[in-house]
Amino acid sequence: MNITTAETYHVPVLLKESVDGLGILPDGIYVDVTFGGGGHSKEILSRLGKKGHLYSFDQDADAEQNIVADDRFTFVRSNFRYVSNWMAYYGVEKIDGLLADLGVSSHHFDDETRGFSFRFEEAPLDMRMNKRAGKTAADILNNYSEERLADVFYLYGELKNARRLAKMIANARQQQPIRTTADFGRIIEPLMSAEREKKELARVYQALRIEVNHEMDALRDMLKGATCLLRPGGRLSVITYHSLEDRLVKNVMKAGNVDGKVQQDFFGRISSPYKLVNKLVTPTDEELEQNPRSRSAKLRIAEKI
């Protein structure tokens, strides 16, 4: 593995805490569904014995430059929503742990050709994690109905001015197509308050990115797959970056389903396939200084019963 390249690609968040939470068994089978720069995968491999194995997923072709040369490692170029299908393909019935570092890697934010960040003024509005298929952010801005755009910004960005935002976009695109971050910025700038501009822009971009990549649906499918794949005693270790992700993860760990619908037995005891390993983990002050991206990170760990 090219360490320099991997570190440039992405600085892993809550590295020790998330891998510690897996309670690695030397001969166990583990899955890292968000390979990225390979930081978490490399740490897992360092704790595995000769008979252990790690399967790591990433749908972005750029991540392949960080693939680990190790017989105990298998890279799967796919969306993590298909984790159950791929484990069946490799003949794996049960796993000992699954790790997910959700959200967007620093590599994506720093690559101006991908359109994930409003820091770059003339970047194409792409935002696809898998560049081979699907609609781009520009496609959505130019083709979604005003009502559907409002729903995207409200549901995935939790923006109170979602309807006004959608109306401005619908009006502007009648004059000319919205193609770049600069085009988009000029349209929505009047709705961004000066004191909260960066925070509001981040939510707008978050909403678009989630819609482009179907992130919430993919997360639901992955969590369902993980619940089926984990053997009793197996661990689920998940890092989230915003409330929408965290709500789903918390619901699954508490109730065993993404809706958080709690089932109780005859005695009123909550019935769930998981038990929490510890309380919510957040980055230390030292990590926050070294890696600003970690400031919104939350780590939750649960064990399959």
Description:
The structure is a single chain. Strand 6 (263-264) and strand 7 form a beta hairpin. The chain has helices at 3-9, 15-20, 39-47, 83-89, 106-110, 137-143, 146-157, 162-172, 181-188, 197-213, 215-229, 243-255, 285-290, and strands spanning 29-32, 53-57, 73-76, 95-101, 230-240, 263-264, 270-271, 274-276, 298-304. Residues 1-7 have low confidence and may be disordered. Helices cover 40% and strands 15% of the residues. With 305 residues, it is α/β, with parallel strands linked by helices. Strands 3-2-1-4-5-9-8 form a 7-stranded mixed beta sheet, sandwiched between helices. A two-stranded antiparallel ribbon has the order 6-7. The longest helix has 17 residues, at 197-213.
Spell out the key features of this protein:
305 residues, alpha/beta, seven-stranded mixed sheet, two-stranded antiparallel ribbon, 13 helices, globular, disordered N terminus
Break the fold down into its secondary structure elements and pairings.
Elements: H1 3-9, H2 15-20, E1 29-32, H3 39-47, E2 53-57, E3 73-76, H4 83-89, E4 95-101, H5 106-110, H6 137-143, H7 146-157, H8 162-172, H9 181-188, H10 197-213, H11 215-229, E5 230-240, H12 243-255, E6 263-264, E7 270-271, E8 274-276, H13 285-290, E9 298-304
Parallel strand pairs: 1-2, 1-4, 2-3, 4-5
Antiparallel strand pairs: 5-9, 6-7, 8-9
Biggest pleated-sheet summary: 7 strands, mixed
Seen as an oligomer or otherwise, the chain set is single chain
Identify the overall geometry. globular
Low-confidence runs (pLDDT<50, min 5 residues)?
1-7
The N- to C-terminal Cα distance equals 35 Å
Q: How helical, in percent, are the residues?
A: 40-55%
Indicate the radius of gyration in whole angstroms. Answer: 20 Å
Average pLDDT figure:
91
How many DSSP H or I helices?
A: 13
Q: What topology, given as strand order, has the largest sheet?
A: 3-2-1-4-5-9-8
Count of β-strands: 9
Strand content: 5-15%
Please provide the ordered H/E string of secondary-structure elements.
HHEHEEHEHHHHHHHEHEEEHE
